[in-house]
Write a structure and sequence with these properties.
This protein has 125 residues and is mostly helical. Helices cover 73% and strands 0% of the residues. It is built from five helices and no strands. The N and C termini lie far apart (48 Å).
Length: 125
């Protein structure tokens, strides 16, 4: 099962990258005229991903991907080096309230970006 845990970690890392890079790309892209930052399905996926993060934070729960990874790897016992490095980057030793505050603030930013850099409706041919 450790290989499945590593796969879940890789997916988790991609989700985190998508969420964080979206927070940077949307305002930057709006300023530089990048049309892709206004693609509705991409923005809706970004918003939905942050909704999941915010709900888990408000409920005081760890991310379901974190829980799944721990279940598959046995809680990180003797993980491969790259897995330990990645875990160190994404799992910070902070209290849950700090993550909740951070995630809710970032979710609020996503909502502000939706309003300030609105996605475009699909154009019919």
């Amino acid at each position: 099962m450790p290989i499945l845990g590593q796969l879940v970690l890789a997916v988790h890392l991609l989700v985190i990258a998508f969420n964080v890079l979206g927070l940077v790309a949307i305002p930057l892209g709006a300023r530089l005229g990048w049309g892709w930052v206004r693609i509705r399905w991409w923005r809706a996926l970004h918003l939905a991903s942050w909704v999941v993060v915010a709900i888990q934070a408000v409920l005081g729960r760890a991310c379901f991907l974190t829980i799944w990874q721990d279940d598959l790897t046995g809680g990180g016992a003797e993980a491969p080096m790259i897995m330990r490095i990645v875990n160190g980057l994404i799992y910070w030793p902070l209290p849950m309230w700090a993550f909740t505050a951070l995630y809710l603030a970032l979710f609020a930013l996503v909502l502000v970006l939706w309003r300030r850099v609105p996605p475009e409706r699909a154009k019919l041919a």
